[in-house]
TrEMBL record:
Domain Calcium/calmodulin-dependent protein kinase II association-domain residues, every copy: 66-196
Cross-referenced Pfam families: CaMKII_AD
Superkingdom of this protein's organism: Eukaryota
A Gene Ontology molecular function term of the record: calmodulin binding
SUPFAM superfamilies (alphabetical): NTF2-like (SSF54427)
Species name: Romanomermis culicivorax (Nematode worm)
The protein, known as: Calcium/calmodulin-dependent protein kinase II association-domain domain-containing protein
Length: 210
């Protein structure tokens, strides 16, 4: 029988698993999560204190864990698009598995595939003076699976300027599985579909790719 991670007597409701987007939220997650570069920013929408996530059906400890997952996701997405391989690798399990556009539907295991992208995509070409990237994690849905495992699904909207200074937008749909080890969350699996991030970076570095 499948084990339930919700308190006894609690019905499974949509609001118990979804982190709602608050477009007018005054929360400032950037104060808690260090930015990787000044050229790349990533916005994750946090619930206000009086949101449905603070109701008795979702204890404060559960809300706290969800916010931890949001912060970790924001940091890894920002590291990805800013080219900060050190931060990205530290947030990933060495045996991470992934499905993504660059792997053409194949399951990739380990960090070598990711490292190749960082070494050859981020470092190729010459960055433009117009270089700017803004990432938005939209409509995150988080499932907590015990104390040390979590799943987050979301859409990632990326705005960027190419070398000609022309603004463009692309999006992807992503799912990440996180595991907590020694008090630290590590990404153990990711499933990504949509515009490959390598394509976005190539357009930023080289306008001929447009």
């Amino acid at each position: 029988m499948r084990k339930s991670f919700f308190p006894a007597g609690t019905s499974l409701k949509h609001e118990n698993t979804v982190v709602h987007v608050e477009t007018n939220s005054t929360a400032t997650p950037s104060q808690n999560v260090p930015l990787m570069t000044t050229a790349t920013t990533c916005n994750t929408y946090y619930p206000q204190a009086n949101s449905e996530l603070s109701t008795p059906t979702t204890p404060g400890v559960t809300l706290g864990r969800k916010l931890e997952i949001l912060k970790a996701t924001e940091t890894i997405v920002e590291a990805l698009y800013s080219g900060n391989s050190d931060v990205y690798m530290k947030l990933c399990d060495p045996g991470i598995t992934s499905f993504q556009e660059e792997s053409y539907g194949n399951l990739v295991e380990g960090l070598d595939f990711h490292k190749f992208c960082f070494d050859n995509v981020h470092h190729s070409g010459k960055a433009s003076k117009h270089h700017a990237v803004r990432c938005r994690v939209l409509n995150p849905c988080i499932h907590l699976m015990g104390d040390d495992h979590a799943c987050i699904a979301y859409s990632c909207l990326v705005q960027y300027l190419d070398n000609s200074g022309v603004p463009s937008t692309c999006q992807s749909q992503e799912t990440r599985l996180w595991q907590k080890r020694d008090g630290k969350w590590l990404c153990i699996h990711t499933h990504r579909s949509g515009t490959p991030f390598s394509t976005v970076l190539a357009k930023i570095r080289n306008p001929a790719c447009q």
